[in-house]
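Entry 14. Structure prediction run on the chain below.
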Amino acid sequence: MHIASKGWYVAQLKKHGVRYYEGRKIEKYKSHILANLLAEKEA
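Output returned:
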């Protein structure tokens, strides 16, 4: 898995305990949305 790929963002968010965002699974979102969500969780 490459760093900053969609799968990498999903894995990192799951490490933070995030599996759903706004009632939808995080796998349904595009990578730029996941990147922003990860940045919020790490801040």
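The longest helix spans residues 31-42.
Filed with the rest of this week's runs.
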